[in-house]
């Protein structure tokens, strides 16, 4: 979702490359471009000005170490300020009580009910048993949707079809959770198309009586500044504990993610990056700032990879890369594993340099299907020794897969670029990924 902002910031910072030092003169135009980029990304003008003023103040007169260029130093300053803007550090969700209670609130269409399922899936991986409580008594399909999610996740759902009081349903649901020794109750509440007093009264009563350990406000990131304004009104009425940004896999400009922490002074705790139950991530301001600046987020990538790769699989791939034995069979296998890690567009943004390799290609979950088809049309020797694929072999592969020779050439070109990128990452140190996979890097 930050694609345009990333490009604009990169373009702005490029103007400092080649400069001998940072001065008020050469910083002025860069600051102006950064401010314009933030505003275009739907960041509130006052917030954008506050950030760029802070960057300018720190940049002017900063000592540039001999082995760091002004452009590199300025990038670090921008990264630091974006991190501070989004909260500085990750804030944990508090789970206390027996059972712990998470109350989920937000406008209709923000993705509350789906989030309830994602939270249950997230905490199941932490060995916590959840009960989903259906307190949306207004939207006819809400209870049915939650029951389907519960069945899919094998998580119990508490509902009372004939009861019209949300608090009564929630109270009875919590009682059932206690009787069944369930760790966590996640309460799905009603949304509205707009803010109204009836909704606010109901959600306030739920919070006051249930005393949840955490109240999360769900925001549709694609709604831009409206999301920030809505969050402000909700916070004044409800005093929620944290924000969950949904639909970050869409084409939103990203301003809500950058502005909301500054405006409501409440941390973003989770981000939702797709439709699958596993597409929910803890929000780390520093990692998001790195992604916005096109530097990727290798730690988050490895954390996701842990869910689909064994350490033995990782060691085998690392060995092949080191010995220049990584081939097209491995390449396709990696693509299939990546699909299990979540939304491809989001995964690509985590890998530094990958978006440039795939530049110009429409990035979506089916984008690699043609690669798989072309590799399947190759002989075993061609898959394992791609360097032997000359023009005649490309023509045969193209004919066998129903693709063009140009597409086969592009596949080989991107395979070589990926190999080069993987070797560069390994050069960070022989134990770089091993440490991450062992969770020693936090």
Write the topology of this structure.
Blueprint: H1 3-14, H2 24-40, H3 45-59, H4 70-85, E1 100-106, H5 112-124, E2 130-135, H6 140-153, E3 157-158, H7 166-179, E4 184-189, H8 197-210, E5 214-220, H9 225-238, E6 242-246, H10 255-264, E7 268-272, E8 280-282, H11 285-292, H12 298-305, H13 311-322, H14 328-340, H15 344-350, H16 354-357, H17 369-376, H18 380-384, H19 391-401, H20 405-426, H21 432-437
Parallel strand pairs: 1-4, 1-5, 2-3, 2-4, 5-6, 6-7
Antiparallel strand pairs: 7-8
Helix pairs in contact: 1-2, 2-3, 3-4, 4-11, 5-6, 7-8, 9-10, 17-19, 19-20
Provide a descriptive summary of the structure in words.
This protein has helices at 3-14, 24-40, 45-59, 70-85, 112-124, 140-153, 166-179, 197-210, 225-238, 255-264, 285-292, 298-305, 311-322, 328-340, 344-350, 354-357, 369-376, 380-384, 391-401, 405-426, 432-437, and strands spanning 100-106, 130-135, 157-158, 184-189, 214-220, 242-246, 268-272, 280-282. It has 442 residues and is an alpha/beta fold.
In short:
The chain has 442 residues and is α/β, with parallel strands linked by helices. 55% of the residues lie in helices and 9% in strands.
Residue-averaged pLDDT: 81
Describe the main β-sheet briefly.
Answer: 8 strands, mixed
Distance, first to last CA? 25 Å
Percentage of residues in DSSP E strands: 5-15%
Structural class, please?
Answer: alpha/beta
Q: Give the count of helical stretches.
A: 21
C-alpha-based Rg, rounded: 25 Å
Total number of strands: 8
Strand order of the largest sheet: 3-2-4-1-5-6-7-8
- Percent helix, as a range, is 40-55%
Give the SSE string.
Answer: HHHHEHEHEHEHEHEHEEHHHHHHHHHHH
Multimer state: single chain
Contiguous low-pLDDT stretches (5 residues minimum) are: 429-442
Shape: globular
């Amino acid at each position: 979702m930050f694609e345009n902002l990333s490009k604009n910031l990169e373009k702005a910072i490029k103007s400092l490359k080649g400069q001998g030092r940072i001065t008020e003169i050469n910083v002025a135009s860069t600051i102006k471009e950064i401010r314009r980029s933030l505003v275009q990304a739907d960041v509130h003008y006052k917030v954008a000005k506050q950030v760029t003023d802070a960057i300018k103040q720190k940049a002017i007169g900063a000592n540039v170490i001999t082995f760091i260029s002004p452009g590199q130093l300025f990038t670090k300053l921008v990264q630091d300020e974006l991190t501070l803007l989004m909260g500085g550090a990750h804030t944990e969700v508090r789970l206390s009580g027996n059972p712990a209670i998470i109350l989920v609130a937000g406008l209709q269409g923000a993705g509350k009910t789906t989030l309830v399922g994602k939270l249950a899936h997230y905490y199941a991986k932490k060995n916590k048993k959840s009960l989903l409580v259906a307190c949306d008594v207004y939207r006819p399909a809400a209870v049915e949707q939650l029951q389907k999610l519960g069945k899919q996740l094998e998580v119990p759902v508490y509902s009372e079809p004939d009861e019209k009081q949300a608090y009564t349903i929630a109270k009875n649901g919590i009682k059932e959770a206690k009787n069944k020794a369930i760790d966590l109750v996640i309460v799905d509440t009603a949304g509205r198309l707009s803010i109204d007093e009836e909704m606010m009264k109901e959600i306030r009563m739920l919070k006051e009586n249930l005393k949840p350990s955490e109240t999360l406000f769900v925001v549709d990131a694609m709604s831009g500044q409206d999301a920030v304004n809505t969050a402000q009104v909700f916070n004044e009425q409800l005093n929620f504990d944290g924000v969950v940004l949904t639909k970050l896999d869409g084409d939103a400009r990203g301003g809500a993610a950058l502005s909301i922490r500054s405006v409501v002074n409440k941390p973003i705790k989770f981000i939702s990056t797709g439709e699958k139950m596993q597409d929910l991530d803890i929000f780390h301001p520093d990692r998001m700032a790195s992604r916005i600046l096109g530097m990727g987020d290798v730690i988050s990538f490895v954390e996701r990879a842990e869910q689909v790769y064994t350490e033995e699989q990782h060691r085998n791939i690392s060995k092949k890369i080191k010995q220049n034995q990584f081939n097209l069979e491995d390449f396709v296998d990696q693509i299939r594993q990546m699909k299990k890690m979540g939304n491809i567009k989001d995964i690509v943004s985590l890998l530094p340099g990958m978006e440039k390799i795939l530049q110009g290609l429409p990035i979506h979950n089916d984008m690699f299907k043609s690669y798989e088809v072309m590799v399947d049309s190759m002989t075993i020797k061609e898959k394992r020794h791609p360097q032997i694929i000359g023009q005649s072999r490309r023509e045969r592969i193209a004919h066998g897969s129903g693709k063009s020779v140009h597409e086969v050439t592009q596949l080989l070109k991107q395979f070589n670029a990926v190999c080069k990128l993987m070797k560069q990452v390994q050069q960070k140190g022989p134990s770089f990924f091993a440490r991450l996979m062992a969770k020693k890097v936090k």
